[in-house]
Amino acid sequence: MRYSIISRIFLCLILSMAMDQLQADENYKFKPDNPISAQWLKKHLSVTSPRIIFTMDVENALRKKIEKDEVVRTYYETIKIRGDIYLDFDLLERKKIGKRLLSVSREAIARISTLALLYRLDKDSKYLRRMEAEINNVCDFKDWNPSHFLDVAEMAFAVSIGIDWCGEYLSNETVINAKKALKEKALSASIKDPPYGWITSEHNWNQVCNGCSSQWRAAGNKRFDRQKISFLE
Fold it and tell me: The pTM is what?
């Protein structure tokens, strides 16, 4: 539990640094009453990977923080301990609790994001190999439990993080497998008639499912162009 909390704090740090980099753009103006649109994404989102949260600018800023800030360095060393623990864990299984697969999806996020972060910063192949195994494992599940779509959204986010942050280092087979799973188990599963209620709901499913949808679409395409982001309008 302690490592999980520290991992979340470290991710919050990365998110904060990502916002700092965005706000450094003199053309950026935050308008809380103006929702993010396809036009906004096309202007601000990188057309090349990594583009989801942990961009190269954020990575460079984080490296400096780790070097100069003792608190950040301590968090990072703790994340490395957690990453090393993951190396010896059994791979995840598609085991639901009641109607939910959510705990498995969230564990996939924790594992893949931690391993991807460590590989990006350390370039130690042990983290890359394990992350690749984690990605292929969940992509080989029969599905990500579309009857409880929150599970799908968060599992897709986990896979998206892996191929966006480290796609250039993964094998072609893994990237192909991941993109195929994102298309079949997430994108195709998100399209139904009548549409899912979370698309326009006012509770957290809206933010989580729509937010994760944008991430897996971003990760699944080399260029996040107008055609790919028009679903937001």
Answer: 0.78
